[in-house]
Sequence to fold (297 residues):
Amino acid sequence: MRMSLHDDEVVATPELVRRLVADQFPRWAHLPVTPGPAGGTDHHLFRLGDELLVRMPKIAWAQHQAVSDARWLPRLAPHLPLQVPAPEAVGEPGLGFPFRWSVTPWLDGTSPAVGELGPDAARQLGEFVAALRTVSTEGGPVKDGTGRGVPLARLDDDVRAAITESGTRIDARAVTKAWDQALGARPASDVFWIHGDLLPGNLLAHDGSMTAVIDWGGVGVGDPAADLIPSWTQFAGEERAAFRAAATAGLTDPDDAWERGRGWVLVQAVIALPYYWDRWPAFARGSQQRITAVLED
Fold:
């Protein structure tokens, strides 16, 4: 039996969601609540009728996302060429559930498999990344600490520790060399709005075209290279080139940003690998594949 994803994970059930919705949003009390698609590392998902989705944080680090989404996604959405799940409502803790939660529109599409999307979809996603940079950052939440989008050097200790902890699961020498190369790139000359977590599970597509970008828990103002990770996590070959051209258009340091982008893939994949090795083996294997993609590029 697979161990819990997190030691302090909070579990939500359809019955709990039904009661919370009925108590706090009676206008939706008549809608059925059913398990939604498999959530990622930080939320349980539930369908609310046919047109809504309830997002229930499963871990304390995600407890602020409902409020963040409600504040920033309506500001960003008008400038973006793909749909984003701006919340319809934010729920309060209750009935033993300790976190704020959200009700968002249900967005059609499915998360594309790695390599499934062609050059046109890659270009669409690249244009989405570039469009984020056109939005004024005034008053936006500047990335801090070791969050995605800060200077890569702040993650140096964490990445090197994870390389050691990963043991023979990776080629430590090659990964360290790639990490050193990323650290050697010039830091970002300016900061912009970033999504911060453009892994395949946070992308939606239909009939080969991108439709939406979801899960904005990493949103903020930071190094735009953090949003170049689909180059290695989703695309290769012609598709990678199409994404790179669109996503780096207008940057003053596209080559350095590319190297920092490789570093951001390593940050996510290397740190995740030992943590999720037993907790979520499929995610750990995906991390190994992302590391390999960086090393082979």
The mean pLDDT is 95. The chain has two domains: 14-105, 119-296. The chain has nine helices and nine strands.
